[in-house]
Amino acid sequence: MIILKSKSEFNEKIIKLGFSKRSFAKSSGISEAALIRISNGKQSPRPETAIKICRAMQADFDSIFKIIGD
Hints:
Oligomer: single chain
Low-confidence stretches: none
Strand order of the largest sheet: 1-2
Helix content: 55-70%
Shape: globular
Radius of gyration: 11 Å
Strand content: 5-15%
């Protein structure tokens, strides 16, 4: 399972990049609803979605997400 390392840091980074959650979701190619659930820790992103988020943030996977066992 993929989870955010820090919900607050993730949300802060979106803001520092100059995005709202809606605009970040659109620019990264994922749905706004999925981004909101991921950012709130209510949904684990699929690997493809996590990679899209990392690319949009220009960040390494390990700086945003961690993988935990089931």
